[in-house]
TrEMBL record:
<protein>
    <submittedName>
        <fullName>PucR family transcriptional regulator ligand-binding domain-containing protein</fullName>
    </submittedName>
</protein>
<dbReference type="InterPro" id="IPR042070">
    <property type="entry name" value="PucR_C-HTH_sf"/>
</dbReference>
<dbReference type="Pfam" id="PF13556">
    <property type="entry name" value="HTH_30"/>
</dbReference>
<feature type="domain" description="Purine catabolism PurC-like">
    <location>
        <begin position="2"/>
        <end position="133"/>
    </location>
</feature>
<dbReference type="InterPro" id="IPR051448">
    <property type="entry name" value="CdaR-like_regulators"/>
</dbReference>
<dbReference type="InterPro" id="IPR012914">
    <property type="entry name" value="PucR_dom"/>
</dbReference>
<dbReference type="InterPro" id="IPR025736">
    <property type="entry name" value="PucR_C-HTH_dom"/>
</dbReference>
<dbReference type="Pfam" id="PF07905">
    <property type="entry name" value="PucR"/>
</dbReference>
<feature type="domain" description="PucR C-terminal helix-turn-helix">
    <location>
        <begin position="457"/>
        <end position="514"/>
    </location>
</feature>
Length: 521
């Protein structure tokens, strides 16, 4: 893309490690209100924009560095390839260092078009990029299978799924992709365009039986659709049918063969028992953003996923205890929740809850479990995530916890139970800790007056991070009297100029403590 004439004079400012990535679509972003944009994405099109690049001048947020950082983080979270930035020196004087550090820390590309140039036009880049994409999409080369799988391999592990592969294929071929079981019941479907109202189920039922029985009907349908079919074999020997439905034009047989080969490999890698109807399959579909499959399974299992408003993530060290821990969780939660889905993925027991009896405090239910479980030694970490508005929130929180990963134990050395808010703060601290010496120095300046005193540093860290601001708990962890902790904390507050016992003042100190532990672990 960068070799196109319209990019002459452009500079890659960040994300050079992402130069290998494929661009297969392009969008213009001028509504830079992140809250508004995220609302649109969540309600209209739950997607992972793995091959899209965005054009913007950041005009509506030109005066706010914080908003610019929010917008870049928002694009990163969506999976965008990068940002093509126009009119630098005219609309924004220069790209702020904070924006560059954030983008570089996450290998997000920012391409700066020639600065101080009023003659630049969006349509030149849009035309040339889209023309190149269209020309590229007209050919399916011999390396198509490897290229398709490589694209998915660049995604975060939790985003690699059969449905993501179907979305990439649908975007590439501008066709509807439908996976069914042998009864022609839809397992996955991806529409082109995504808001299409085409009745693919009717087409599958009309054209499927003769096709799967070897009597191929290739004639055009009444609505100018061409239906192609291939068989996909699962590891357990069961068969799925792949239907490729394209309006107005017919795909070559060789292309259909390549597509089916890609889907076959995707099923082998990520789709074990892809047509299974179980709570485990439902949870996997939620976590992997397989929206069509999720809705189908929820309907078949009579589970109201819209009622899910709470999630627990219970990470276990010893899988031999997994079944007993799940049984204990089910017994504990059945007293409080009408909807409870409890399944294990890898070393994590995912608990999705809804319809709580309102006479109970949900946080107290979680605290009670932590205090009474007989398996506390087998649990390495537990996250309590309330206010899950939809399955998108569930998936994002699961992804966020996995991004934080084992670093949680570098920050919180004495604890196993965490809230969603603490996980978000940890992620922010982790991002800040890799943004370079200047950023770290700025945050360390918050607690600089006590950094030369090991006793004060340890007391502050334990008080805010391990004891959650509780004097009694801190005294027990430090093996000192409660009044000693109070005296030390008062002196520390005076030295640093923040009262760390007040919620309105301690957050910057709290973040600084997390960053300190990360860089000194």
């Amino acid at each position: 893309m960068l070799q196109l004439p319209s990019f002459r004079g452009a500079k890659v400012l960040t994300g050079r490690n992402s130069l290998h990535r494929t661009v297969s679509s392009l969008s213009v972003l001028e509504v830079s209100n992140v809250d508004f944009s995220s609302e649109i994405v969540q309600t209209v099109q739950e997607e992972w924009y793995a091959e899209e690049i965005v054009i913007s001048s950041l005009y509506s947020i030109k005066d706010s560095v914080d908003k610019q950082c929010e917008a870049v983080q928002y694009l990163i979270d969506l999976g965008e390839v990068g940002l093509i930035l126009y009119y630098v020196g005219i609309i924004i004087p220069k790209v702020p260092e904070e924006v560059l550090q954030l983008a570089e820390s996450q290998n997000f590309m920012i391409i700066c078009m020639p600065e101080n140039d009023f003659s630049l036009r969006y349509n030149e880049v849009i035309y040339e990029v889209m023309e190149a994409i269209v020309l590229d999409n007209q050919t399916i080369n011999d390396n198509f299978v490897n290229e398709s799988l490589e694209k998915v391999s660049f995604l975060p592990e939790h985003s690699r799924s059969v449905e993501i592969m179907l979305k990439l294929l649908s975007d590439r071929l501008k066709a509807n992709m439908v996976l069914t079981n042998t009864n022609l019941e839809i397992v996955n479907q991806v529409m082109w365009p995504r808001n299409s109202t085409l009745d693919v189920l009717k087409l599958v039922h009309e054209y499927g039986p003769p096709m799967v029985n070897g009597r191929r009907r290739m004639e055009e349908t009444d609505i100018s659709c061409f239906v192609e079919h291939r068989s996909i074999h699962q590891k357990n020997g069961e068969i799925l049918y792949l239907f490729v439905i394209k309006e107005n034009s017919k795909l070559p047989g060789k292309t259909i063969d390549k597509i089916s080969e890609v889907v076959q490999v995707a099923i082998n890698l990520w789709g074990d028992k892809h047509n299974e109807v179980s709570e485990y399959a439902l949870v996997k579909a939620i976590i992997n953003d397989e929206s069509e499959k999720m809705r189908r399974l929820a309907h078949l299992l009579h589970i109201d996923v819209a009622a899910i408003q709470m999630m627990w993530l219970v990470y276990i060290q010893d899988l031999s205890e997994e079944k007993r821990i799940r049984e204990e969780l089910a017994e504990h939660l059945s007293k409080y929740y009408k909807t409870a889905v409890i399944q294990t993925i890898d070393h994590c027991i995912i608990v999705l809850l809804g319809n709580c009896s309102y006479k109970y405090s949900e946080i107290e239910i979680a605290e009670e479990y932590v205090e009474t479980t007989s398996f506390i030694s087998s649990i390495s970490e537990m996250v309590y995530a309330p206010r899950m508005r939809n399955t998108t929130d569930v998936r994002r929180m699961y992804q966020l916890v996995n991004q934080v990963g084992k670093k949680v134990h570098l920050i919180y050395r004495q604890r196993k139970w965490f809230t969603a808010a603490e996980i978000r703060s940890m992620k922010r601290a982790i991002d800040l800790s890799v943004q370079g010496e200047e950023v770290i120095e700025e945050w360390m300046s918050v607690i600089a007056p006590v950094l030369e005193d090991p006793e004060s540093v340890r007391t502050l860290m334990v008080f805010l991070l391990d004891a959650k601001g509780n004097f009694d708990a801190c005294a027990k962890l430090l093996y000192v009297h409660k009044n000693t902790v109070k005296y030390r904390i008062r002196k520390i507050s005076e030295l640093i100029g923040y009262d760390v016992t007040m919620n309105s003042e301690f957050y910057d100190v709290y973040l600084a403590c997390m960053i300190y532990r990360l860089i000194n672990s």
